[in-house]
C-alpha cells in the first residue's frame, strides 16, 4: 500500500511538472551534455507546445500550490533564502498563501479527546466545531473553559507525519538528482535547504514546543506596551493539542479597520522595528515567523498601538558573539567601513580564516556602494543583508541557520513596516537602539556582571586544573583504560567470529548427508575459527 501511495504521489508530481513546464526551468540550468540530450527521451517534449505566458517564477509558484500544503510551506521557506535564489523566483514564492480546506470537526474532537483523555464536553463549557482558521499543519477552533475564559484550541492535522515523510523523501530525491546533474543546483545547496525545511516542519508538529516558545516570549515582554502574547493554558496542552487565550485584535493587514479606529500608523510601524531589535539584541529570542497572518493589533489605545503575536512554532536565537558581530557589522555598514565589515566576517568565523581581507572588502564595496547612493529612507535593510550574504557565499561562507532566520524575520518586519507607513526609515528607527545596546554592553554594570560570571566559574576551573595536574603526575594509574571501553573494543572482532560461526553452520547444513566429507573442510575451519574468536577473553 505504501509503495502504491508513493508511486501515485510520484505520478501526481510528474503531472504538475508537465502542466507548468518545470522541466524547461530545470533544463535552463547548466548541466552535462548527456543529461541535456536525454531530455529528448521525455515523451511530453515530443508534442508541440505554445510558449507560456507565465514567468518561470509564476509557474513554480502555481506548481507548488498544485502539489499541496507541504510543498507550499517548502516554497514559503525557500522564498526566505534570497541569498540562494534569483530575485524573480524569490518574489513569486513570497506570494504563496497557505490556505488549506479544514478537516472534519469530528476528527478534531476525536484527536483532542485522545490527547487530553476526556470528552470534549467535559473539557470545555463550549466548543465551536466550525474552525476559525485552517493551515497546512493544524487548524484552530474557538472554545470556552468551565472557568469562563475564552480560548482557542489548535489541533494538528491527523495522519500528517506519513504524508510529510513521503513528500520530503521526494523533495530530497529531486534535490540530490539536481545537485548531481548541475553545478548551479549545487551552488544553491538544494539538499541543505530541504533538510532545513524538514527540521522546521517536524518542529512545528510538536505543539508543546510552540507552547514553550509562547510562554518565553510572553515572559520577555511582560508588562510591555509594545507586544502582547496570549496566555498558554498548560493543563490542556499536549504534543498535538494547544490551548491558549483567545485574542480579538485586528489583522495587521486590515488597513481599513486600522484606519477606522484612528491607529497611529507611524508609531505602529516604528514599534514593529523596536520589537525586532528588542527580541534580537536584548533577549536573543525572536519570533521567526512574523508574516502578516501571525500578527494582530490591539483594539485598545489606537494612539498607543500594541502588537499581538501568535504562532510561535518557529523562533530563533543568537549567541552573545553573534549578537556583537551583527551589531558591529550593521554599524560599520552604514558608516561605509567595508574593511571592518570584511574583518568582522572573518573574525566571527562566518567566512574562512584564510579569506583575503582586501578581496572581500572590494567585493562588499562593489555590491553596497550603488545601494548607498539612494536616500537612507529608501534603502532596504533586509535587502542589504541579503546582498551581503550573497557576497559572503562567493567567499565560501557556511550557512548560518540563525542568520537565515534573522534575515527572514527582518524582511518580514521591514516589508510590513513600510506597508503600514511607507515613509518608514528603518535605520533611523533602529540606530539609536543599536547604539544604546552597544553602550550598555560596555557599561560598568555589564562589565561587573561579566566579571561576576567569570568568578562563579573559578571553583569549577580549579577542580579541572587539579584533575589535570594529578593525571600528569600519575599518567599510568590515572589513565588506565576504562573496563567498558576495553570490552567495547572487542565487539567488532566478536561480531566477525559470530559471522564465521553462522557461515560455517550454513555450509555444514548443506552437507549433512556426509558431514565428514573432505569437501566440507572450509565449513569446519570457519566453525573452529569462529568459536575461538567468540569464546576467547
TrEMBL record:
Major enzyme class: transferase
GO BP term, example: regulation of ubiquinone biosynthetic process
CDD domains: UbiB
Keyword Transferase: yes
Gene Ontology CC annotations of this record: plasma membrane
Compartmental location: Cell membrane
Cited InterPro entries: ABC1_dom, Kinase-like_dom_sf, UbiB, UbiB_bact, UbiB_kinase
GO-annotated molecular function: ATP binding; protein kinase activity
Membrane topology, record value: Multi-pass membrane protein
Alphabetical keyword list: ATP-binding, Cell inner membrane, Cell membrane, Kinase, Membrane, Nucleotide-binding, Transferase, Transmembrane, Transmembrane helix, Ubiquinone, Ubiquinone biosynthesis
Pfam families: ABC1
Enzyme Commission code: 2.7.-.-
Pathway: Cofactor biosynthesis; ubiquinone biosynthesis [regulation]
SUPFAM superfamilies, alphabetized: Protein kinase-like (PK-like)
Predominant place of localization: membrane
Membrane spanning residue stretches: 493-512, 518-535
Protein origin, superkingdom: Bacteria
Domain ABC1 atypical kinase-like residues, every copy: 96-344
Entry-linked PANTHER family: CHAPERONE-ACTIVITY OF BC1 COMPLEX CABC1 -RELATED (PTHR10566), PROTEIN ACTIVITY OF BC1 COMPLEX KINASE 7, CHLOROPLASTIC (PTHR10566:SF113)
Function: Is probably a protein kinase regulator of UbiI activity which is involved in aerobic coenzyme Q (ubiquinone) biosynthesis.
Record-stated family: Belongs to the protein kinase superfamily. ADCK protein kinase family. Belongs to the ABC1 family. UbiB subfamily.
Protein name: Probable protein kinase UbiB
